[in-house]
## 1
Amino acid sequence: MSEYIHINHGDNARRDELMEMLDLTFGFEKKEEQFENLLPKLYKEEYKPAENNVVLDVNGEMRAAIGLYYNTLTVCGETLKAGGIGNVACHPDHREKGYMRFCMAYALDEMKQNMTDISYLCGARQRYERYSYEPAGERYEFSYNQSNVRRRLGADKKSKFRGVRIQRTDKELLKAIADIYNNRDFKAERPLESMYDILLTWRCEPYAALDGNDFKGWFVLNLDHTAVSEIGYADAGDIEEIAICALETSGSSGVKISAPAFDAPLVNYLSVACEYYSRSHPDQYTVFCYENVIRAFLKLKSTYQPLTDGECVLLIEGVKLPEQIKITVQDNQVSVEETDEKPDLALTHTEAMRLIGSLHSEKRKELKPECAAWFPLPLYTYSQDNV
């Protein structure tokens, strides 16, 4: 019998079928390991996970699926449409048939057609570079331990704050977190009604840092309390107490704390107070509209690092369309616009992704030094916003 292959977004009536295939594909047998508990913000029934998946059927039977979860990033007032790729899955009995290539091609084509600006995912680098994704952005990871606190602040130093596990019913705390998060220069869309499920991403545990009954900030611990994926604060002067509170609450002798480059107060404190730190890429990204993405993230970079004056014209053979853009910085003000001026540098998509986003770029040295200093851009995805 000939095979009839159909690819489209799923129907929410098929949620159970989707969840069963995903858990089987990833070998999640224990309930606590399964996708609904791993990422409740995406897979609980009310979030309609099947409708957010590109599903491939063969003769009516689900064989493969890719999660395509849209979000809106607001970066220094610029709005970017983002597409997160997750749960890339093919039924174990039907691999090596090209089904995932079909699904990825469908997802990429959809994002190009609906004016998506940027997409991100986690996964094996060489697996996804064929689909135009490149490691990019800036993430700091700090090793912060009890010895750091003791040697800097004294053997008896304890945080003034206490860490309290946030529960779904703690509406005032969740509202306080939303108010702080939504006032940032960089934020993804976090609806208040979904905030608790978002904070639980990757089976994490959210805590409020309280001074008496006063809310000072929050932190998110991973399942085994060895890492802090997110720290938020109302007042930068409270960062040290919140960091110590997170360390004490973890019950561990030390924790890894992740932070984006643009959170300057947090990075400034931890870079001095920690044992050591590393700088890496937070995710893999592909850009569909370089003009919008460069404008937004260069503005973000200007908030914590003064930009050198300069201008350059880039011709980029993008994965969607060629773009010829002029980037100008004057007195820390950023302008990015289409131009027909002669390009200073012509780039393939991969070369452009590495130039704007990679910690190392062989092409960046071909720019004028004042322009090369603008990069890499601080592309980022908070772990709790990831898919």
## 2
Amino acid sequence: MGWGRLQRWSYVALGLGIAALLGAGGLSIHSRAGSAFEASDRIAALPQAHYLPANADTVHWGYFSQSLAPKLTVDSGDIITVETLTHHANDDAERMVTGDPGAESVFAWTSDAKGVDRRGAGPIDASVFGRGAGEGFGVHILTGPIFINGAEPGDVLEVQILDVALRPSGNPQYRGKTFGSNAAAWWGYHYNDMIEEPKPREVITIYEVDATGEENWAKAVYNYRWVPQTDPYGVIHKTIDYPGVPVDHSTIDKNFEVLENVRVPIRPHFGVIGLAPKEADIIDSIPPGYFGGNIDDWRIGKGATMYYPVAVEGGLLSLGDPHAAQGDSELAGTAIETSLTGVIKVIVHKQADLADTILEDLNYPLLETKDEYVVHGFSYANYLAELGDTAQQDIYSKSSVDSAMRDAFRKMRHFLITTQDLSEDEAISLMSVAVDFGVTQVVDGNWGVHGVIAKNVLPEN
């Protein structure tokens, strides 16, 4: 699929999304009494369609910021097609960058300049480690931010994911294919608990997916061990310590005998969807929090709806960290990091209208699917406030699954009490017998545990 065809697909998907939404009304926000917001309250006018491509002018790399100028301004109820790029594309640029104008502009890097200079929330002069602007304190390529008219602190932003599509390789040699990278890296849970030599080691596995959608699985193409890479500025990267470093494939040994006959079911989703936090100006994109961000839950894909508390005017919504597949825990460090195009709808729910709905007193990211509600707990619910001035450094050494589990328990208790009129005793009993808690991720600084409750367990909504 060429780039013209990709854009045509996006606009077709956009039209289908609008038609389906107007015909079916989308997901409803239920009150405890069972009634929903009236359609006239949800959509004041016919939704407007927008397109936000991913290129060096429309992305910010490795951070959220309330000071970023919006790349798009929309109204509540509007539908947006958003392109997103994986920050791991340079693990195999031939397959994931070459021939893709947007990716080429973002990953451009010569001895004179980078397409996107700041990569992370660190100092622009790389005065900490000398790795590059931003120091890699934050790694995700985020498209946006998007300013939503009428969104104010105290409101809740609803983000419906209407569709998700793989971004095909722009290289004619790989027509009809999409590729992704999995990094078993130094931040992975496994890294200091390996049994084979050499140890420790970082390993990249490149996966292939059928971009046409006829096959719904990924297969490994080859893997290689990371060896020191010298970037175009002359900085040597002994480990995967700065995003977007171009891997010189003449320096690596490729192993094509990897995961033979294994098919990995794909479930395309966004690892990062989030709003700008209010606590600091530039926020590392890696640890998630109350504002969403790098939640890394594979359930945040087509058909899902996310709800986020708004902290700054306009919300400043950004999307990125697209994945083809991921297991709960994201144990080795990453998912199958690939590039995706999503179609989303955004709806502002005003603070004054939240009483007696599932959004009442919502101060954490909430996921709704057709069949389930999912709360997301973290080691620290709001690490930026709880850990003080050094929060962005300390969060990496203070996280634990135990504290994330406690936060998930507290959030699910809050959800059941406030949305279902349960007593605390009732909520605790129900959690023990009907809620599935799982480890979302143990690699994002602020570790995550999710709690899932099926809608059919609850009184009819």
## 3
Amino acid sequence: MSKFKAIRIVKEPAYAASYSEFDESELMDGDVTVRISHSTVNYKDGLAITGKSPVVRRFPMIPGVDFAGVVESSSNPEFKPGDAVVLNGWGLGETHLGAYAQKARVKAEWLVPLPKEFSPAQAMAIGTAGYTAQLAVLALEKHGLTPERGPVLVTGAAGGVGSVAVSLLATLGWHVIASTGRPEEAEFLKKLGAAEIIDRAELSGPGRPLWKERWAAAVDSVGSHTLANVLAQTKYEGAVAACGLAQGMDLPATVAPFILRGVSLLGIDSVMQPKAKRLAAWARLARDLDPAKLEALTTTIGFDQVIETAEKILAGKVRGRVVVEIG
């Protein structure tokens, strides 16, 4: 199959994404070629496809930051044809031709073997968002935080990162407070394990340097005023794992939570994590993520629905995770 279907983003004459055809000769350097079976739609993918943030740094580009598939050919002894694999990050869909295609050529070091506990569709139901949520949970644990210390807050709880974080933390015994701007999703979040639901309006406006202590830990995918207010209400020697910017990249906060309560801000990067940490995160997902909850938070779409779904995810009209059947 020298020709294959893909989404192509061009910059000229105007930024645009469209369904197109690529030739295998256009693929970039790499020692493993993968036949992609599934991908997903993350918030970052929405930004890339719409051009609302400068995610894409090479043109033309195939967007899509993660995929699951089967090795078609490999010149690296670590992988052989037929191996099931997963890829998250490493510039896929940004600087390297990405996942919204029937084929990809990548570096072997970027790939992780598909955990036996997951099908390719389940792996993409987790996707970069779920993998990022797991990295955030691991960071909180490394900081020494446990459910005995008090509640944990999850912002953007109905989104991709948030919904998986709620499920993981509830399974681990945390009292989960879910913040969302979609009150109609309250029952959905409670089924995932949230013990309390709060309106995001409580956190999204300008706030004080310090508020009453409310939670021992938090996973924040929102940034801006929300993150500032989360920090201002974190308990003494608590920590906040920050992994997103849905509200903005700014942080209008003061040093008060850090120097008066010893609060820590833990940055979570999912793109350039070394393989050992990726394997550890996927192992924990296989152990802690309830398959029934994963199914409950997942919607499946066809390849021809990716562009319209990208618009919806930025508009806050997508809940949980979206799996794309590449076909």
## 4
Amino acid sequence: MQVKLALLAEKQFETMLAYLVRYNPAAEQHVGFFGESETEIRETLAEIAPPLTESFWLAWEGDELVGVFGADYDPEIDRAWLYGPLVTAADWQPVAEALYAEVQKCISASIHELDLFFEARNLNGQAFAARHGFSLRSNNAVFRLQRADWKPSAVPAPVCAYQAAFFEQFEHLHQTLFPTTYYTARQIVEKQAEDQRLFLMVENERVLGYHFCKTETDSGYIDFIGVDAAARGKGLGADLLNAGLEWMFSRPQTGEICLTVDAENTAAIRLYEKFGFASGRILQGYRKRVD
């Protein structure tokens, strides 16, 4: 049967969501940007900046959905994140290529970096990245902490909430630790709200570390945690991590907390395991520079 492509229609959102919930958890198909559970995928889609009806393409065989590919992008950091291809059609490659051709037209011409994010066992995704000139830039380990495995600290962490007076120091530290990441320091500060918090470790008016995390419907996520290289080995990372965990688990509905970390960052992994985090998937990030 011939495959037909079409932009997502608003009335098709739940159909697309059900497709992603059904197929994205499988290792051989997993696209890291989407997440896994229905709640996680729904909230991820809600955060995408361009309207989904203008940035997500679907592939259909008759009335059956057999492929999804979309994009999110941010002109401020000059990058687009490609949500796909997730394809279940028998002819994986031609359907993926056709979807990609349409999705590229949806991305602002001002964008010069494209990112892909696949499970390490998603061989179709890896081949797709290679065909289109994307370079492997990272191997990321996914860690999750269940509420039942969390042991609260008896000693309050010596951290403070973000204060505007420390912005320049925070910005410098963030740029140093995560020079090519997905949020700028100013974006992090502006995102602070009831469900997103930025904690600082400050000694003698000097910012030594920070932790930016958020809560979602029934979970939490650690976006960034880092310590100045000159201040490491003093337990500051553990204090920052503990402060964020305390805040996220203070909500009774938070059942688990998730994070991704460089799979070769053994020091960070030891810290997370000490707090009860358990490893899951390995996700591979790919990037391509375009004119």
